[in-house]
Amino acid sequence: MQPIVYKQASVKGLRCPALCPDPSGDELLAAMGDGRPRSDADIAADLLIAFGRALRRRPVTQEIMRWELLERNELTNALARYREQEALKLIGLLTRAHYLDVQAIGSLLAAGQAYLTLRAKTADVYNGLRLDKDADWDRVEDAIRSLTSLAFSSGQPAKRKTQPAARRPRRKPEAR
């Protein structure tokens, strides 16, 4: 694959989705289809699955995401801001679930899909899942549906097992 080259001038005025290779919130909503009424669990699962499918169809986005893990610069910051804005719009659709940390749960499930998608370039198998087989991606999607259904059906927040002070401190990003 050829390296992706962006004009530095385009970074300041980054306009998405025209320049962003990431799936937009509108694209993910459109992938949900027919507009029929859905539960919060179904909305969350549909959006997460649409995100995973969109990401797997975008090899350029995958390369950019790999690059973002290695380097921080003006362009990667702009792309991260766009991705964050789009994600927050979608999370806002699930505000009825006040008892549930939708951001944390959605982040874990989206990050898991992103990792598996990026990992598929260098590994055929991850914990027994064949990353090159549609049937195993179907299993991932089924797991997302199961986990969102369980999370939204409880009606109560999960009890914290550890005290906040016992958590590992966050690493501060290096100054550039």
Quick summary:
By secondary structure, the chain is mostly helical. It has helices at residues 9-12, 25-31, 40-56, 59-70, 74-91, 102-119, 134-153; strands at 125-126, 129-130.
Total helices: the number is: 7
Percent of residues in β-strands: under 5%
**How many domain units?**
1
If you average the pLDDT, what whole number results? 78
* Principal-axis shape: globular
Secondary-structure element sequence? HHHHHHEEH
Catalogue the unreliable spans: 1-19
Helical proportion, percent range:
40-55%
Distance between the termini: 29 Å
The SS-based structural class is mainly alpha
Main beta sheet strand tally, sense and closure: 2 strands, antiparallel
Main sheet strand line-up = 1-2
Q: What integer value in Å does the Rg equal?
A: 18 Å
Number of beta strands: 2
What do you see in this structure?
Strand 1 and strand 2 form a beta hairpin. A two-stranded antiparallel sheet has the order 1-2. It is mainly alpha-helical and 176 residues long. It is 55% helix and 2% strand. It has one domain. The protein is built from seven helices and two strands; from the N terminus they run H-H-H-H-H-H-E-E-H. The longest helix has 20 residues.
Please give a handful of descriptors for the protein shown.
176 residues; mainly alpha; two-stranded antiparallel ribbon; disordered N terminus
Topology record:
Elements lengths: L8 H4 L12 H7 L8 H17 L2 H12 L3 H18 L10 H18 L5 E2 L2 E2 L3 H20 L23
Helix pairs in contact: 3-6, 3-7
